Fold this protein.
Amino acid sequence: GLKIAVIGGGSSYTPELVEGFINRHHELPVRELWLVDIPEGEEKLNIVGELARRMVIKAGIDMTIYLTLDRRQALAGADFVTTQFRVGLLAARQKDEAIPLKYGVIGQETNGPGGLFKALRTIPVILEITKDIEELCPEAWLVNFTNPAGMITEAVLRHSNIKKVVGLCNVPIGMKMDLAEVLGVEADRLEIQFAGLNHMVYGLDVFLDGISIKEKALAAASDPGKQMSMKNIAALGWEPDFIKGIGVLPCPYHRYYYKTDEMLAEELEAFETTGTRADVVKGVETELFDLYKNVELQTKPEQLEKRGGAYYSEAACSLINSIYNNKQDVQPVNTKNCGAIAGIPYDSAVEVNCIITKEGPKPITVGELPVAVRGLVQQIKSFERTAVEAAVSGDYYNALTAMAINPLVPSDTIAKYLLDDMLEAHKDYLPAF
Ligand code: NAD
Ligand code: G6P
Ligand code: MN
Ligand code: MN
């Protein structure tokens, strides 16, 4: 049987993961599921852990749930390590989202200044975890869900000795499920050719039963009556002629880049009424944990769909299943480019369709991205690499460069004000600076 360690086990997403393992138990024999957290998360860990135990009992399967604050104990001999932790908790996210707004910059926790700071806080921790993995479970696969997932994968690829790492995001599966719904077809008949970076991924082509329906998909994606998005991103409508012109399916996060002014206005307005997304999530979490506490509850509640990461277990559990069973099916994941996307460094992380084998993801060659999107993808990769260098070195000039070259930051001067303000606000979680 398999031993799985989940770092950040107190997350409200954990019941999804447990459900995913339960549903696949006939082919994926998870015998030990270790949920790890830190003292600040102990209460959540206990609540979610007890729910996980009730779910397993209800399912009548042979899986033991362990709860611990000792990461090393959880990692020892693990076959897979999944990570879903939040350094600095929601309070840090609130700052990532609120501070940029003061400067007229979009406050977002994975893109722009927020993404930079989430990376600066998180990369030192993930690199500690990879050292523990090297020592305690060197054969394990690290399946990272922690954001910013693209930069975390880039950091692990470049700055750790771990080779078995995959970054995951629910955006591609979300795009596929939403598109299927809009088109009125079963999701498993659709195939999207994904390529790009995390939260910067495009559908280059769309197939229904193996036949390209790209034009139809692009029209559906920009139909004013049917806007597709994630729960955490305002579903502002796309200009249908723009989508037709650009010729690829954008992801929900592309709104920040192609509709910057409108998204900023939207965020400023929301800030005045409901606060930041972190504030909204605090409310959703309270609601979820109140439900989880109910000893009658034995399944994942549907309120979990209010979180932006809904359906993430589909991605995580199918990936682990396909690695374990050498399924060789196609899944979009964050992995080492290895030349799949021309112009992106060989050893950088990309989000791209891969064949999932026992030896891990094998990226499917894309070649050059369409000229209309190539530049933005390159720019974001430059930002990501510079941000990773800053996180690893603690170098102020790297951090400032990353901030200034991010397309959501309008000037060098604003970049510096914003950087200094955020460095001060987050200083407890930035020992390198
Ligand atoms: P959360 O705030 O509930 O945090 C999860 C747990 O991590 C908490 O219980 C917290 O105590 C714990 N934690 C914090 N620091 C830790 C550390 N050093 N070691 C171990 N545990 C630690 O967060 P969440 O909303 O469940 O999200 C978790 C992570 O997953 C975030 O980084 C979030 O951005 C990411 N996420 C990713 C996707 C994706 O598409 N990849 C989707 C949703 C969420
Ligand atoms: C999205 C993304 C995640 C993101 C999350 C936010 O779908 O893919 O990477 O972190 O949802 O959701 P939340 O409910 O925390 O705002
Ligand atoms: Mn994501
Ligand atoms: Mn700029």
In short: The first strand starts at residue 2 and ends at 7. Residues 110, 147, 169-171, 230-232, 277, 281, 307-309 surround 6-O-phosphono-alpha-D-glucopyranose (ligand 2) (CB under 6 Å). The two ends are 43 Å apart (CA to CA).
